[in-house]
Amino acid sequence: GVDVYTCVAGATGALYGPRHGGANEAVVRMLEKIGKKENIPEFINSVKTKGGEMLMGFGHRVYKNYDPRAKIVRKIAEDVFSILGREPLIEVAMELERIALSDEYFVKRKLYPNVDFYSGLIYRAMGFPTDFYPILFVVPRVAGWLAHWYEFQDDPDNKIVRPFQIYKGYDLRDYVPTDKRNKFVDDKCLVVPSNAAKNRRNAGTK
């Protein structure tokens, strides 16, 4: 019985994050951090180093070669720049793409630019604040979300949504005192490194 506004707000919060809804935001912040083309080789070396930088906007769960959508967005970016002026970070992005695609380290791992690599630069050229990008990601999805919501509200047989899950974990196990349990995860793995998203979340709790 919750109102649709709260539903959309909750869905927006769930979508937020550098892995999906905020992926193009993460790309722009990465390009801002690199700053200029001369810094790219150092950045690439850091990406290859354990615990170093992350290469945002590359790779996809489905596309294991160049994301066809990225080519389309790249062309749209040039169309936008022809009207609004060329976004300076596009030069950094193009050089980063060129170097990464000629590096065996990334080619072997099938890491190619995805649709988020250039889309953030379009938003930047249009004057949208970087923090606003996840909302732009949400806007076209709201139509589908509302269609599901309306369909559910209109169906008299629907009482409550219970997503179906299949548990694939352990069966019955004997209790083992905590001091005698095997340690499968290093405590360091449980520490989340500081980043822009974490800093924003922490700022809201102070």
Key features?
206 residues, mainly alpha, 0% strand, globular
- Percent of sequence in beta strands: under 5%
The low-confidence parts are none
Characterize the overall form.
Answer: globular
Q: What oligomeric state do the depicted chains represent?
A: single chain
What is the end-to-end distance? 32 Å
Q: What is the gyration radius calculated from CA atoms?
A: 21 Å
Number of strands: 0
Description:
By secondary structure, the chain is an all-alpha fold. It has helices at 4-15, 23-34, 40-48, 68-84, 89-101, 104-108, 116-125, 133-154, 196-203. Helix 1 (4-15) packs across helix 8 and helix 2 packs across helix 7 (116-125). The longest helix is centred in the last third of the chain and has 22 residues, at 133-154. The protein starts with a helix and ends with a helix. The model has no long low-confidence stretch (mean pLDDT 85).
Describe the secondary structure blueprint for this structure.
Blueprint (H helix, E strand, L loop, with lengths): L3 H12 L7 H12 L5 H9 L19 H17 L4 H13 L2 H5 L7 H10 L7 H22 L41 H8 L3
Helix pairs in contact: 1-8, 2-7, 4-7
Summarize the structure.
The protein has 206 residues and is mainly α. Helix content is 52%, strand content 0%.
